Each structure stands twice: as C-alpha cells, then as structure tokens.
Amino acid sequence: MRCTKCKGTAQVEVRRHHTAFCGPHFLEWFEAQVDRAVRRERMFTPQDRVLVAVSGGKDSLVLWDVLLRLGYQATGLHLNLGIGGYSQESQEKCEAFARDRGAELLVVDIPAEYGVGVEGLAQLTGRVACSACGLSKRYLFNRVAVDRGFDVVATAHNLDDEAAVLLGNLIAGNVDALVRQTPVLESTHPGLARKVKPLYRIAERETAAYAVLRGIDYVLDECPNSAGARSLLLKEALNLLERDAPGTKQSLYWNFLEKVRPLLRTASEPVALRSCVHCGQPTTAEVCAFCRMTERVARKLQSRVAVSAARREPVAASSGGGGGPA
Amino acid sequence: MKVRIRHQRREVQVEGVRTVGELLDRLQLNPETVLVVRGTELLTRDARVADEDEIEIRPVVSGG
Questions:
Q1: For the domain B2-59, what is the CATH code?
Q2: Cα A12 to Cα A29: distance, rounded to the nearest angstrom
Q3: Are A220 and B43 a contacting pair at CB < 8 A?
C-alpha cells in the first residue's frame, strides 16, 4: 500500500476515507483533522486557556500532544483515582509526558482529598465503581477549570467513543443524553465550564497509530474495573460493522450530529441549574451528587474510626495498666 | 515469526503467513481493533511479513 500523498510505503490505512499515509504524512493529516475540528466547531482559540483531561492513556496524551504542537495553551489535569498500581502508572506517564515537553500538569489525588479512591467511594455509597469514577471526573474537571479560570475543558473522546455512546443512548431511548451529545457543550451556568471534544472526527485506531508514530509512552493496560463494560461491547459490535463496511462509525455519528440531533433539540426541556449549598458547583438539587457522595463517605469513615477506636480502647487501657482485658 | 499480543499478554509463534492480513486472520483478530508493529514501523494489511520477523500487536480499543 502506498501513501496517497508521496507514494512512499504506507504505514496507516484510513479505510473510511479510502486513503493511506506514510508516517510523516499521517501525522500531518492527523493534526490537520484536529485543528479543523477545533476551528470548525469554534472550540477555542490560541488565546484561550485549555484544560485537557489526561488519564495517561493514548487518547488523552495524544490530544495534549497535538494541542501543544498546534500552539494552543493546553494545561493537563490528571485525577489520581486511587486504583492501586494502575493509577500510579497512569500518573507517572502523565508526569513524564509533561516533564518532557515542559508542559503544566495539575494533579488531584482523590484518596488524599477524600479519604478513599473511586472504588472506596463506590463501595461506601452502594454505587458501581464506574459510576463513582464518572461522577468524580465530571465534578473535579469542572471544578478545577472554574476555580482556576480556564476557558474550556477538552476531553479526548474520539469517534469510536462517541459512536458507542450514541448507540447505547439510542438503544436506551435516552433523549436527554442524545441532546447533550455534541462536540461542544456550552456553559449554561456561571459555575459550569464549556466542554469540547477535539478528537470527535478521529477514530480510536488513528489515535493509537499517532501515539506509536510520535513515540508517546502511554498506559497500555485498561482500568481493571472496565472488564465487561457495556461500552466495550458496543465498540466490539461497531468494529465488526466497520470491518465489513468501512465508515459505519463515522456515518452513524456524523449523520446524527448533522441530521438527527437538530430535530431533538426541541424535544428536551432545558435543565434549571442552581448552586450546591455546600460547594457552589452547579446542580439540579440543593446539594450536588458529588457532595452527597463524599459527605456520606466521610461520615462512614468517621464512624469506622470511632468504632475502631472503641475496639482498641480496652487494649490501650490494658497496655497502660499492665494487665489484659477482662 | 514471533508475535507478541499485548492485550492478551501472550506470545505466539506463527509460521507460513505472507501478509499482515493473513496473520490477523490466522489469529482471528479484527484489523479494526489492533495495530501491527514491526520495530518502530506500523504495518498495513497488505504489508509482507516473514517467518524471521518479530511482530507486536497492540490493542486500540479502550474505555469502560
């Protein structure tokens, strides 16, 4: 296979565009696609401060790399989720990436801030781990962006992510989620950051190829909690279609954005947001879901400490008094 | 050839395939879900491979 541009040996085939590129021309094409998405959707300008959510995986580090190369003011934000060795490696990859490029990286350590990691938050509040994780990410990315005066939060959701979420929302008939599924989510409250997805035109296979060709060192292992996740099943189904009908994912998502979503916008009532009485973040309730979760966890942790102290008391008394408990 | 399949954490020996497409067919892997790497070079489906090659197969699907 030959590069469409220079006729050299191709390294990456982009079947949905009936094209293939050598390494240098693929990188050039990829960066142009991202820049085109940013400009076309008016996501941000070189004057804006962009907060990039970085997990240490391929997509987020590729997004950060491309935005820096394109001359945007991109600061990384990494959340340490407290998932053992996986979280440690993820943070190390982000820190090494930032160090190599002289880029600014902010880190929020969830276990240090809230007493337990996302698995603990889930366990102590009767949620599944991915639910506590998703809630924490949405809350903390927004909070850091607003508190530190960033103009926009950029996440690395790619074409495959968006197509899989779309398929899931269609199956569930989730109209509100379909209305919100867009590459640019405008702020509807002073405490709500604008959110954008600059990789929405890029397939997951292409971000992986970009990472390999640029030598970006990313976490290859998946989050241990993602095994059996529904999103992976949806992606598998879409990739079976894509194998035999290239362009399926792109057609699904882009046709939705261009032809279907405009019809849905009137089908959903705008949600009235107010400020959480505890943290001030936007919410539909008096206290936001994140505060409810973390406050419940704090109460449980405190009661555990109290119980543990009460259980230790006789031992402590015995060690002080020189005798064993009765 | 020696093939390291990263997401399955296994290494297999494959003989007698001539192209990347044949290799993926043999391993029953969907080409949309992986990258095929030889050294620092990415290989397209029609790229020739030889028994003495060392190949790495990287997953591209992530998320949970």
A1: 3.10.20.30
A2: 11
A3: no
Q: Where are the domains of chain B?
A: 2-59
Q: Does residue A265 have a pLDDT over 90?
A: no
C-beta separation of A157 from B63 below 8 A? no
What value of ipTM does the predicted structure carry?
A: 0.95
Sign of CA dihedral A49, A51, A52, A56: positive
pLDDT category, A316, cuts 50, 70, 90? very low
Which residue from B42, B58, B61 is facing A235, i.e. has the nearest CB?
B61
Helix axes A159-172, A248-255, angle to 10 degrees: 60
Domains and CATH numbers, chain A: 38-222+230-272 (3.40.50.620)
Terminal alpha carbon distance of chain B: 33
* Closest of A235, A150, A241 to residue A196, by C-alpha: A150
Which candidate from B7, B33, B47 shows the least CB-CB separation from A239? B33
Q: The whole model's pTM is what?
A: 0.92
Neighbours of A286 (CB within 10 A): 12
